[in-house]
Design a protein that fits this description.
This protein is an alpha/beta fold and 133 residues long. The chain has four helices and eight strands. It has two domains: 73 residues, 2,3-Dihydroxybiphenyl 1,2-Dioxygenase, domain 1, CATH 3.10.180; 59 residues, 2-Layer Sandwich (Signal recognition particle alu RNA binding heterodimer, srp9/1), CATH 3.30.720.
């Protein structure tokens, strides 16, 4: 078996507050949206080959009733490797920073923020030595 793709699905009360963070600040595009009443129930955000999905709790209640209670137990933690951390820092520093910028022993420069829904996102730039070694 070869894994072809892995896409996280983050569950939230409402999707709309997270959209500007991903589209305006991180350069993702909304490629799919599924309405749930007068709000979004599901959305796919994509940048190149990278994507993330958000699904509302109300949508999960209807779509995944057997696990609907479990999706509310979050938050989710994502580790996101980027080419240039400095280009993201202006957008990230306006967020709720839970992990101030640091240099790690494994060769990464990292900063961690919460998205508007409360999920934890750590952005990382690997040093050339860490990438080659």
């Amino acid at each position: 078996m070869a894994v072809k793709k892995l896409t996280p699905v983050l569950f939230v009360e409402t999707i709309e507050p997270v959209l500007p963070f991903w589209t305006e600040h991180l350069g993702f595009s909304k490629t799919v949206e599924v309405p749930e009443g007068d709000r979004l129930g599901f959305v796919i955000l994509q940048q190149g080959k990278v994507e993330v999905m958000y699904q509302s709790y109300a949508s999960a209640d209807k779509d995944l009733p057997a696990v609907a209670a479990a999706v509310r137990k979050g938050p989710t933690f994502l580790y996101i490797e980027v080419d240039h951390l400095d280009s993201l820092k202006p957008a990230l520093l306006s967020r709720d920073v839970y992990l101030p910028e640091r240099q790690t022993f494994y060769g990464a420069r990292e900063i961690g923020v919460r998205d508007p829904a409360g999920h934890f996102l750590t952005f990382s730039e690997m040093s050339a030595a860490a990438q080659n070694g």
